[in-house]
Structures are given as structure tokens and as C-alpha cells.
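Protein in question passed on here:
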Amino acid sequence: MTTIALNLQATNAAIATAAAAAGRNVNKIKLLAVSKTFPVEAIREAYRAGQRDFGESYVQEALPKLMALHDLPIDWHYIGPLQSNKTRAIAANFAWVHSIDRLSIAQRLSAQRPADLPPLQVCLQVNVSGEDSKSGVAAADISALAAAVAALPHLKLRGLMAIPAPTDDEVAQRAAFAQVAQIQQALNQQGYALDTLSMGMSHDFPAAIAEGATIVRVGTAIFGARD
């Protein structure tokens, strides 16, 4: 087995362990392999090892990869910051967008989604740590944004995404992820049927799974350290 295949095996085993510890069905948790900065051949290796969902953060880097890998039925997720001049390419080439943090971007994605494609699956990015440097919507503003995005014709609002401030303290990790889960629960009590919590990365996904993550975004643990 290749290194990437072994890493995928180990990551999936760790996800299963975390799910069991939380009393959750591991089949309800999707592994998103974050392939940004890694080459096409690394993605092919991961695909050969059974991985089907991949995440990219930079449009100019992602588009040549998508073209080179068009022969593979990959589900591509856009997880990076969203700029208005990049929305057309994202709307045309990705199945998911995790990082919506303002209505103007969501409106552009909806208007630019090709008519022959299914609705773009989207998450709203929540800034749970209140960091000025982080993208995301303040918790107080999520409800209004959710209402507006849910009404757009070519988007399907699936849930929330978060990137809490990094910490090795598992208690702090879980507290941040629990806050995201509580926001989603509050939205669902308002009548939304949100089923996705995109949270947890290589260093903290067990804590995210304990608090209800349905998509964990893992790059380093699969592909190795980035340059």
C-alpha cells in the first residue's frame, strides 16, 4: 500500500474509534480529504484507496486539477474564502461550498449555477471564536443569513461549517464545536432541515465527532505536511 493509502486507512480507523466513543454511527460521518497544495497524482492515489470527496481552497489551483481528474467521479468541495470574482468558476465546477459568509456571495453562486447541474450544496461558515482574522458569520447573524440563503433557487442549504481557534485543549475544542451544533439545533427548531456540520480537521476531528460533526476535513493526516 502507498503512504497515502495507509494514512487514509489510519484516518478512517480514527474516525471509527471517535464515532464509537461518542455512540455514533460512523456511516453518518464523511471524510473530506483536503487536497489543496497537493498534486494530481496524490489525489489519484487517494481515489484508488477509496476516497471520493476532496476539498480545495484556491480556485486557480483547483481548476487545473479538476480538469486533469475529470475522468474520476469525484465530489469536489470548495472550502476556502470566497471572492466575488471567483464565484462563477466555483458555481460551475464544485458540488459543495462550505464557506458562505455573506449573502452577496450566495446570490452570485445561485445566479451562476449552470441550469443543467443539481443545486449547489452549501454550508454557512460560523465564526465561533470571534477572531478578526477568521472568515465567518457571527452567531447572532446566522439566522438572517440562513433565511436568505435558503430562499435562493439554485442552492441547497445543508448546514454549518466552522474553523475554531486552534488549541490542543480537548475541552476547549469540544466547547467550540458544541457551540456550532447548538446554533444548528436552534436553526432546525426554526424549521430548517439542516443535516450537515462541517467541522474538525487533522488535529481536532475526534472532538468534532464527539459534538456531532458529519463532515471532517482532513489534509495533513492523509497527504503529509504542506510545504
